[in-house]
Specification:
The complex is a heterodimer of chains A (291) and B (285). Chain A has 291 residues and is mainly α. Chain A has twelve helices and two strands; from the N terminus they run H-H-E-E-H-H-H-H-H-H-H-H-H-H. Chain A starts with a helix and ends with a helix. Chain B is mainly α and 285 residues long. Chain B is 77% helix and 1% strand. The chains are: A mainly alpha (291), B mainly alpha (285).
């Protein structure tokens, strides 16, 4: 009796344990099955390489996602240009220079920043960053790709900082001591020894930051202007993949090509985030192996 | 040459300090702006009144209640499942290829965009299981979203339990489950509780997963069952700041709502920190 009970308990925990795998597969299958329905009506190449997204056009609807893929990557790239130097700089400062008190203070600042809901960051983009950009660059509206990049930078900073900091902190002390012994000063040691030693951890932090930026919905939805066209500069209004789903899913009739095409975009997003995570996993595994 | 090197060092360290200062400023400016303008909008009436006159007046009472309701739904779903999964990984699973695969799945689940969870919620809960757009559908969707976080952090809490605790119980003839229940879980409890609260504070602020699974802009009554639609703070902020017909007129209300959301998130975080400290002391004795 006791053994049966123990077995039952084991199977319960085993089931909940593998639930994550089931959910991951379930999400993928759901996106795939719904998304593939799109291609009954839309040619594969038109979907991936078409630049016009206009599913509700009166005459001929078009389902090209290239503009929004470019928009997503453009906003993400902008965010990384800002967040990577800032994040690594802050992480280095916390790990190598700051006193214990400043360290704790900065860590709680980063914790709080990480906890701020994306819709609040978007709100700040509307009330503060937007008007600021409009004023500085003399534009009629500050709702554009640049605004999105700035906010996404703020959102990915906590990820980049906390993971990079850990990586830099874990660099063995004798690396540094050896460098000092060879006559290098603190800065040279940092740039030539410590940071290169922590490099793979830093790469992981950047990959996860990119993943966060690509998948973010509310901030970009609120501040990038959402014009569904191919962007030409950071001052253009852009509409990302996530924003397109958010805008159109609420109004689209169930079971139409338009409905399925939104799942197809979701599938593309899913695969991109899976790819980004996989790179992070591989770098981590290689790093662990080398240790 | 020496002088140049020294100069480079000063510039280098200066730029590191500068980046830390910028990060602090980003948070500082945000909090300051929201707090300063939000306080003007908040009064007791704002917190306990219904929205009036097309949202331009009145309060956000049903919005707060909606967020609390859906967060409780999320809790009921994700914490039992998440903690059980963590118990499996920490206590039962043998390290090997399969377990590594499960862990990789959890990490990947955490990286999936929240809007994709929203799509999943529509396809499975709203339409597949026919729960409609409701507190239930949104709560389950948010539950899935927080699950990887709950699993990862609970497992970490379980890992801090000394091995002796398990072996001691087993040596006295306890079964594996008895050992877990009487010796492992109580010790890990403060950590699990803390991380669960943090996970919930994230769920409370999420917008994308509830967009098409149950949230609505306006309801003249409070949600009475889990099959009702609801209003929620993050969605309210989104609508007031982007979709409202009189955006400038409702700006103070948007600030007020934002401050309330941030205050809830902070209070949950603070509660987590205090609980960890208090319970940690009690159990370690």
């Amino acid at each position: 009796m006791k053994r049966i009970k123990e077995k039952a308990i084991y199977f319960f925990f085993f089931f909940t344990g593998i639930l994550a795998v089931i959910i991951l597969l379930g999400i993928f299958l759901m996106l795939l099955l719904n998304g593939l329905q799109t291609f009954k009506d839309v040619r594969f190449s038109d979907f991936f390489f078409g630049t016009v997204w206009n599913p509700s056009a009166y005459k001929e609807s078009s389902y090209g996602i290239l503009s929004m893929v470019v928009s997503t990557f453009m906003v993400t790239l902008g965010a990384m240009v800002i967040a990577v130097p800032l994040g690594i700089g802050t992480a280095t400062y916390i790990a190598e220079i700051a006193s214990e008190r400043i360290k704790n203070f900065l860590r709680s600042v980063i914790g709080i920043l990480a906890g701020i809901p994306s819709v609040v960051i978007g709100f700040i983009g509307i009330v503060l960053v937007g008007p600021f950009i409009a004023k500085v660059f003399n534009l009629s509206s500050g709702l554009n790709a640049l605004n999105g990049s700035i906010l996404l930078a703020a959102m990915s900073l906590p990820t980049i900082i906390s993971i990079s900091e850990e990586a830099i902190r874990e660099v063995p002390k004798n690396y540094k001591v050896a460098s000092y012994a060879l006559g290098a000063n603190r800065w040279t040691t940092l740039v030539r020894v410590t940071i290169p030693a922590a490099f793979s951890g830093i790469i992981v932090s950047i990959m996860l930051g990119i993943g966060r930026a690509i998948g973010e919905t509310m901030t970009v939805l609120m501040v990038t202007g959402n014009a569904p066209a191919m962007p030409h500069s950071f001052f253009d209004s852009v509409r990302t993949m996530t924003a397109t789903i958010a805008i159109e899913m609420g109004e689209v009739p169930y079971g139409t090509t338009h409905y399925y095409s939104l799942f197809a975009i979701g599938a593309v997003l899913f695969l991109i985030s899976l790819g980004v995570n996989l790179v992070a996993e591989l770098v981590t595994a290689k790093y662990r192996g080398a240790k | 040459m020496m002088k140049f090197k020294r100069f480079k060092e000063i510039i280098g360290f200066g730029s590191l300090i500068l980046s830390a200062v910028i990060v602090v400023l980003i948070l500082g400016i945000m909090i300051f702006d929201i707090a300063a303008k939000g306080f003007e909008a908040i009064s007791l009436k704002f917190l306990i009144d219904f929205p009036r006159e097309g949202m331009t007046k009145g309060g956000i009472f049903p919005v707060i209640i909606g967020t609390i309701f859906v967060t409780i739904m999320t809790t009921l779903f994700s914490i039992p499942l998440g903690v059980s999964a963590a118990i499996y990984l920490s206590e039962y699973a043998k390290e090997g290829r399969f377990t590594r695969f499960v862990r990789a799945a959890i990490r990947n689940l955490a990286g999936i965009p929240s809007i994709v969870y929203g799509l999943f919620g529509v396809a499975i809960f709203v339409q597949g299981l026919n729960f409609g757009t409701s507190v239930l559908s949104s709560g389950l969707t948010l539950g899935l979203l927080t699950l990887p976080w709950i699993i990862a952090t609970s497992e970490e809490a379980l890992k801090t339990v000394p091995q002796d605790y398990r072996e001691g119980a087993l040596a006295l003839g306890a079964t594996k489950w008895q050992a877990i229940r009487s010796n492992v879980l109580p010790y890990a409890f403060p950590g699990i509780l803390t991380s669960s609260i943090l996970g919930l504070s994230r769920a409370a602020g999420e917008t994308a997963p509830i967009l098409f699974t149950g949230v609505v802009f306006y309801l003249p009554w409070l949600p009475g069952s889990v099959f009702d639609q609801f209003m929620a703070l993050p969605y309210h902020i989104y609508i007031l700041s982007t979709q409202h017909h009189a955006i400038d007129l409702v700006r103070p209300l948007a600030y007020g709502t934002t401050l309330v959301l941030i205050a809830i998130v902070f209070m949950l975080n603070l509660a987590a920190i205090i609980l960890r400290y208090q319970l940690g002391r009690k159990y370690k004795k």
